[in-house]
Design goal:
Blueprint: H1 7-13, H2 15-47, H3 52-64, H4 76-106, H5 108-123, E1 129-132, H6 136-147, E2 152-156, H7 159-162, E3 169-171, H8 177-182, E4 190-193, H9 198-211, E5 216-220, H10 226-233, E6 237-239, H11 241-254, H12 256-267, E7 274-279, H13 291-294, H14 296-300, E8 303-308, E9 315-317, E10 330-335, H15 337-349, H16 353-356
Parallel strand pairs: 1-2, 1-4, 2-3, 4-5, 5-6
Antiparallel strand pairs: 7-10, 8-9, 8-10
Helix pairs in contact: 2-3, 2-4, 2-5, 3-4, 9-10, 11-12
Keywords: Ion channel, Ion transport, Membrane, Transmembrane, Transmembrane helix, Transport
InterPro entries: K_chnl_dom, NAD(P)-bd_dom_sf, RCK_C, RCK_C_sf, RCK_N, Trk_Ktr_HKT_K-transport
GO biological process, one term: monoatomic ion transmembrane transport
Length: about 350
Amino acid sequence: MGRPSSSSRRRALLAGTDSGRDALRRIAVALSALAAVTVVGTVGYTALGFPLLDALYQTVTTVATVGFREVRPLGPGGQLFTIVLILLGVGTVLYNLGVLVEAVTEGHLREHLGRRRMERDIARLRDHVIVCGFGRVGRSATRYLHDRGHRVVVVDTDETRLDGLTEPFVHGDAANDDVLRAAGIERARALVCALDTDAATTYATLSARALRPDLVIISRARTLGSKDKLVLAGATRAVNPQLIGGRRMASFALHADVAEFLDEVMHDDDLDVRIEQVRLGESDAVVGRTLGEVDVPGTCGCQLLAVRAPRKGAFTPSPPADRVLEAGATLIVFGTPEQVGRLRALAASGRPVSAVEGTLGG
């Protein structure tokens, strides 16, 4: 597999950013030149005997070519100095106007300021999800995350895909460390990688894993053979949408009611119940207690479907009451958001529901 990048391609991807910076640089140069002409004019007229305010006023009216008369009569030296100042000043003013008109009409300044504002927004994000690749899979993942209240940063090399996007985005190669840092990978909770080719997805996965060894990375595998390679590259899980889609269709054919129920629970926003996970931390009060002592259904109202052992261990469906809860274990539960909220509060505090309901808003 050849890495899909080159110096010329990277220059093309950064062209928009460079244009915006060039526009700001030209504006800064133009304004600096105008300020320099004003200072030179003021100093010159002061040397000719003008008071400071009169010298400044004479300089501004001369450079602006407004046609006012001189503040004081000018001798031959003053007239010669004024001629030079007019030539320099008028040229500088015209250059300023040209630079400003070009920056506004071509949109470079507006785009650059928009990017700076977006960079500040991304810098404030915490626990967001980065979606690399905004094709069909990336769009679907972004919509799902957005509908569930998660903040998303999109990364893509194709500007046409990013047009009109309301989510924060970074235009660039997801395999580039600087691009991933610009997307806030140091503060992200997860990364979804769904690029156009398995090679691009593999390199982006490698880069993301090198920057964040603890990050949850979900990579899209376009072929079955690439799933194992993506896991070796650092993906937490490699997903083949075609395989999942085929199995889902077969499930509907064989177990229509079960498949439809799970589909509604996982994807229907109008349904009030969800299958959620609650991971136990080192300091959670329920760690070391048995499931019988905690009594998740009776105490919180949600149903305990399974327990997963720490460090991505095995699942235990319908765990027995004498199962001891360990730090790092994950509880898979079925219930409403309020019921799951009670369980999270109970896990952290160890107090029964009646003692923590007030902190949960009922």
